Structure formats: C-alpha cells, structure tokens
Amino acid sequence: MNNYFVYIISNSSNTVLYIWVTSDIIKRIYEHKNKLIEWFSCEYNLNKLVYYEIYNDIKIAIDREKKLKKWNRKWKDNLIDKININRNDLYDDLL
C-alpha cells in the first residue's frame, strides 16, 4: 500500500508557507532543499519541512491539500503549532 503526504514547507524566517502533496516526501523535500524544483519553492527559498500528514488514499490526500490551501494563514499556523511550535525542520526525522 502506498502512502501519500500532504506537507507544508517554509523558509528560514517562516514568512512563507507552501502546501503540496507527494508520494515520496523524502525525495520531494530533498528536491526543495537543493533547489531542483524551479518554481515557487525555489523562488522563495522554501526548504524547511514544518508539517506533514500521511494518507493511504491519494484522493483523500489531494482533497486535504486543497482544503488546507484555502485556509487563512492563522489557521495554517495553528495547525503547524500543534505538532511543531518551534518550526523545526522535520526532514531529518524522516530519514
């Protein structure tokens, strides 16, 4: 069974949040950190994994991603703070 991840990455000053979904979170965050993805995350230097959720169904993961993207910043911050109040990079925990 595959896992799908809805994740939030940020920059070092935690001023920008980016939400996406992937089936390979380790590879995807590596790509963000090494600027191998030339789009929004590269432009804003988003390289710190601050939050993620795991799903077994891609449709549910995509629905969750879409819902989170519609949230206001305060709601997103509160969600992150529930598990990562210091905004530590969670990438190393995955390895």
Helix content: 40-55%
| H and E string | EEHHEHHH
Largest sheet: 3 strands, antiparallel
The proportion of residues in beta strands is 15-25%
Briefly note the CATH topology name: GIY-YIG endonuclease
The CATH class: Alpha Beta
Label the structural class.
Answer: alpha+beta
Number of continuous helical runs? 5
Count of folded domains: 1
Q: Report low-confidence residues grouped into runs of 5 or more.
A: none
Shape: globular
CA gyration radius, whole angstroms: 12 Å
CATH architecture field? 3-Layer(aba) Sandwich
Molecular structure report:
44% of the residues lie in helices and 22% in strands. The chain is an alpha+beta fold. Strand 1 and strand 2 form a beta hairpin. The radius of gyration is 12 Å and the shape is globular. The two termini are 20 Å apart.
Keywords:
about 100 residues; alpha+beta; GIY-YIG endonuclease; 3-stranded antiparallel beta sheet; globular
Give a concise summary.
The chain is of the alpha+beta class and 95 residues long.
